[in-house]
Specification:
With 812 residues, chain A is an all-alpha fold. Chain A is 75% helix and 0% strand. Chain B has 207 residues and is an alpha/beta fold. The chains are: A mainly alpha (812), B alpha/beta (207). Chain A: Residues 422-771 form the Exocyst complex subunit EXOC6/Sec15 C-terminal domain.
Chain lengths: 812, 207
């Protein structure tokens, strides 16, 4: 630009600077943004100049490039070579990449397959879980249904019914859209009906089996009552007598006490038997536990659920009523054995145990009124049956066993809360019967004792035997104790035997009153009454029979008198014995006394009478041998043979029976003498004896003298003076009058108390006189006596006349 | 008084205690038997009327106690007896041995002409027998006495025994009566004769 000059020169300078800046901008700016720069070039006027400048610049740059290329040629070549190398490497790399890609592609294909599978799996999984959910809903229904079936099959109908309900109301609605559910729903009423039928048939089986097992149940219940009582006995340590009341209270109380688990009352609330009370005593399960009541409950529940409860109740009660009637019908041979009674009672107890359990474990299947009605019927029928059957009983042991059985029966049922007072009243009736049986039995016992007795004093050889007898019978005799062995008790064997049998009888009586819940006073009264009957009726009769028996001799009679004396003395010991047993003091309470004393007194009196009779009979037998010759002219030299024998017999008899009580011996002797005297008088005055001679009369007088001699000799000790001779005084005066022919005295003193012949009755005198008169008349063959005879005859007539007038005056 | 019999024979039963005297008498008089042994105290009697040769005979049979302690009482009855039964028990040796003593008793206390007879009682109890029948018979023969085995219980030979004794007494009586009709009779029997003069059988035959 220097070429341009001054002003031109300055302008050129500015333009050049401007071009320079643009060039620089072009060089430094990005090609894309070159536009505006280029624009500024186009906007200037000096394009040529700029072109020049640009040309200059390109040449400059070319030169620089050339310089640069010259300088970097080797480096360029190297670089190209390097680049060529890189190109080879790049090709290699490219191949590698291609290869890798191919590989990747093949690998990826598997993955895709797996992915596809996975996808399928996920789908399946979702489906499965949906199915499971549905099945979870359905399965319980099916399970329920199968449980139902199972329950039906195993006859657990009530649970089945519950299951059915559950199924119907809970499970089935949840899944109602399934077809099987529909079938189930349709089946439900059928199943209900089936359950109803089956449970009813179960109930029938139950009723049948309960009828069969009633006695077993009853037996167990009775056994438990027995155990309970034994337990009470041990606990109370009370004697049964008088302790009865306590026991009754215990039983009543036990219903309130939890302690008394074994008592039937406490078990009544144990509920349905299916629910087992494990903690309840296992060794003593209630009698009702023998029974599976579930059929009843089931049936009841089922019918309740099915709304037919009333039908069920009616059916049940009707059936049971029928059964009750059967049970209460006693077998006709019940009275033969205790087992007969036991079976009968067992059945009744069984029946009521079951009903009681039903009453307490069901709400109103049976009610109080129904049970009370049944019980009332049972009571009246049982009592009637017992009354009839027990009347056949003749064995005291059976009666006793029966009583124990009835007590147990009553106690058992009382334990279940049934009123049993009537049974105890009935027992009192049986007690009377038992007493009768005992009386009959002991009557036999006494008869045997009396029949087998030897009526001889018991001999004792040593102390041991002595003590044995004294132990059996209350006897004390210091005299006898002092005597050396061997010695004899005054009484015979029957005394200790009878005494012990009376005691046995008392024990037997007592046995019946056990467990009757009687007071000791009642027992005491009963024992005394029975014992009195035994003494006054049985023993008394037995003794009387022996005494009155035809062949009972003096030996037996005398021994009976001695024996009864000792038995009479023992009566107070019997009283004591009873008092000890009953603990009732005879003084404190108004009790009946024992009549033993009178019994033995009566027996003794009878024996005494019999001795008198017996002796009189002997005398009569002798008198039958009398053979007087009433026509004898002269008397014999001595008393008649028969009379001598008779007197000797009486003498030896009284000599032998020295152990007879004095009074009895005296009475016997006196009565014998009197009888002899009377009999002799009769013999003399007998109508058959038409005539008699003085000689005969003298012979007769000899005999009477023999009798008087006997009376005088004191055959038994204790008579005062001539008391015994008085027995013959009438006869003596009569004989004296006739033998001394002392009519003037007789007639003169007649009626006076001092009369020698006071006891001669004019009628008697006349009777005898008539016999002598007749004699005189017939004997008048002796001519030389004729005059005498005539005088005598006249005297007799006169006397007879006097006598007649005496007799007549008496009768006037 | 009407005559109820033609003769009265007094018989006596003797022997040890328990041989069955009372039972024999009970069987003969009542035709009965009592099993319990009740020993006789002192003396007892029974009367039974029998018929022999058309005659009514009252047998007054005295039953004595066998026990020693009653001996004084019982021996008093020997003298009046016209016939004596000696009884032993075939099941009891001792009672048989004692028969000799009883015979001695008779010789001492009874009339010399008393009729005697030995009875072996309880012959129903053969299984307990201690005395053979032969032994009994031998003893009877030795003493010249009749012998029978009896059983009061089974009613064997009881009637026979008493009838035999009664018949023997009767025979003796008849013989004696015949003797009596011839004068000069007497001797030791005299007392008895006198006694019997008043007794029934004599007069009966006279009537």
């Amino acid at each position: 630009m220097r070429r341009g000059g001054g002003m031109a020169e300055l302008e050129s300078l500015e333009t050049a600077a401007e071009h320079e800046r643009i060039l620089r901008e072009i060089e430094s700016t990005d090609t894309a943004c070159i536009g505006p720069t280029l624009r500024s070039v186009y906007d200037g006027e000096e394009h040529g100049r700029f072109m020049e400048k640009l040309e200059a610049r390109i040449r400059n740059h070319d030169r620089e490039i050339e310089k640069m290329c010259n300088f970097h040629y080797q480096g360029f070549v190297d670089s190209i070579t390097e680049l060529l190398k890189v190109r080879g490497e790049a090709q290699k790399l490219k191949n590698q990449v291609t290869d890798t890609n191919r590989k990747l592609q093949s690998e990826g294909k598997e993955l895709v397959i797996a992915m596809e599978e996975l996808k399928q799996c996920r789908l399946q999984q979702r489906n499965i879980s949906a199915t499971v959910d549905n099945l979870t809903l359905c399965l319980p229904v099916l399970e329920m249904y199968s449980k139902l079936r199972e329950q039906m099959k195993s006859k657990r109908h009530y649970p089945a019914l519950k299951t059915l309900e559950h199924l119907e109301h809970v499970y089935l609605p949840r899944v109602s859209h399934y077809r099987f559910c529909k079938i189930m729903v349709d089946n439900i009423p059928k199943l209900r009906e089936e359950i109803k039928d089956v449970s009813m048939s179960d109930l029938k089986d139950f009723l049948e089996s309960i009828r069969k097992h009633s006695d077993k149940i009853g037996e167990t219940a009775m056994k438990q009552a027995q155990q309970q009582r034994n337990l009470d006995n041990i606990v109370s340590q009370h004697p049964r007598i008088g302790g009865g009341k306590k026991y009754k209270k215990d039983v009543c109380a036990s219903s309130d006490l939890e302690v008394k688990n074994s008592s039937p009352m406490s078990e009544q609330d144990s509920g349905i038997l299916d629910v087992e009370d494990e903690d309840d005593d296992e060794e003593m399960t209630g009698a009702q536990d023998l029974v599976d009541f579930s059929p009843v409950y089931r049936c009841l529940h089922i019918y309740s659920v099915l709304g037919a409860r009333e039908t069920f109740e009616n059916y049940y009660r009707k059936q049971r009523r029928k059964q009750a009637r059967l049970v209460l019908q006693p077998p006709s041979n019940m009275h033969e054995t205790l087992d007969g009674y036991r079976k009968y009672f067992n059945q009744i107890v069984g029946f009521f145990v079951v009903e009681d359990h039903i009453l307490h474990t069901t709400q109103g299947l049976v009610n109080r009124a129904y049970i009370d009605e049944l019980w009332e019927m049972a009571l009246s029928k049982t009592i009637a049956a017992l009354r009839t059957h027990s009347s056949y009983c003749s064995d005291p042991n059976l009666a006793l066993d029966l009583k124990n059985l009835i007590v147990l029966f009553a106690d058992t049922l009382q334990g279940y809360g049934f009123p049993v007072n009537q049974l105890f009243d009935m027992l009192l009736e049986i007690r009377d019967q038992y007493s009768e049986i005992l009386l009959k039995k002991w009557s036999g016992v006494f008869r045997n004792i009396l029949d087998s007795d030897n009526y001889s004093p018991i001999p004792v050889a040593n102390e041991e035997l002595y003590m044995k007898i004294v132990g059996q019978f209350p006897f004390q005799d210091t005299e006898l104790e002092k005597q050396p062995f061997p010695k004899k008790f005054p009484f015979s064997e029957f005394v200790p035997k009878v005494y012990n049998q009376i005691k046995e009888f008392i024990y037997a009586c007592l046995k019946f009153s056990e467990d009757l819940h009687l007071s000791s006073t009642e027992i005491d009264d009963m024992i005394r009454k029975s014992t009195n009957l035994l003494l006054t009726r049985m023993l008394s009769n037995c003794l009387q029979n022996v005494i009155k028996r035809r062949n009972t001799g003096l030996t037996e009679l005398v021994q009976i008198i001695i024996n009864t004396t000792h038995l009479e003395k023992s009566c107070k010991f019997l009283e004591e014995f009873i008092t000890n047993i009953t603990n009732v003091h005879p003084d404190t309470v108004h009790t009946s006394k024992l009549y033993g004393t009178t019994t033995f007194k009566d027996a003794r009196h009878a024996a005494e009478e019999e001795i008198y009779t017996n002796l009189n009979q002997k005398i009569d037998q002798f008198l039958q041998l009398a053979d007087y010759d009433w026509m004898a002219v002269e008397p014999g030299s001595k008393a008649s043979d028969y009379l001598v024998d008779l007197i000797a017999f009486l003498r030896s008899t009284f000599a032998v029976f020295t152990h007879l009580p004095g009074k009895v011996a005296q009475t016997a002797c006196m009565s014998a003498c009197k009888h002899l005297s009377t009999s002799l008088t009769q013999l003399l005055l007998e109508a058959e004896v038409r005539q008699l001679t003085l000689g005969a009369l003298q012979q007769f007088n000899l005999d009477v003298e023999e009798c008087e001699q006997f009376a005088r000799s004191g055959p038994v000790p204790g008579f005062q003076g001539d008391t015994l001779q008085l027995a013959f005084i009438d006869l003596r005066q009569l004989l004296d009058l006739f033998i001394q022919w002392d009519w003037s005295t007789y007639l003169a003193d007649y009626g006076q108390p001092t009369c020698k012949y006071l006891r001669v009755n004019p009628t008697t005198a006349l009777t005898l006189l008539e016999k002598m008169k007749d004699t005189s008349r017939k004997n008048n063959v002796f001519a030389q006596f004729r005059k005498n005879e005539r005088d005598k005859q006249k005297l007799i007539d006169a006397v007879a006349k006097q006598l007649r007038s005496l007799i007549n005056s008496h009768h006037l | 008084m009407a005559k109820t019999y033609d003769y009265l024979f007094k018989l006596l039963l003797i022997g040890d205690s328990g041989v069955g005297k009372t039972c024999l008498l009970f069987r003969f008089s009542e035709d009965a038997f009592n099993t319990t042994f009740i020993s006789t105290i002192g003396i007892d009697f029974k009367i039974r009327t029998i018929e022999l040769d058309g005659k009514k005979i009252k047998l007054q049979i005295w039953d004595t106690a066998g026990q020693e302690r009653f001996r004084t009482i019982t021996t008093a009855y020997y003298r009046g007896a016209m016939g004596i039964m000696l009884v032993y028990d075939i099941t009891n040796d001792k009672s048989f041995d004692n028969i000799k003593n009883w015979i001695r008793n008779i010789e001492e206390h009874a009339s010399s002409d008393v009729e005697r007879m030995i009875l072996g009682n309880k012959c129903d109890m053969n299984e307990k027998r201690q005395v053979s029948k032969e032994k009994g018979e031998k003893l009877a023969i030795d003493y010249g006495i009749k012998f029978l085995e009896t059983s009061a219980k089974s009613s064997i030979n009881v009637e026979e025994a008493f009838f035999t004794l009664a018949r023997d007494i009767m025979t003796k009586l008849n013989r004696k009566m015949n003797d009596n009709s011839s004068p000069g009779a007497g001797g030791p029997v005299k007392i008895t004769e006198n006694r019997s003069k008043k007794s029934s059988f004599f007069r009966c035959t006279l009537l």
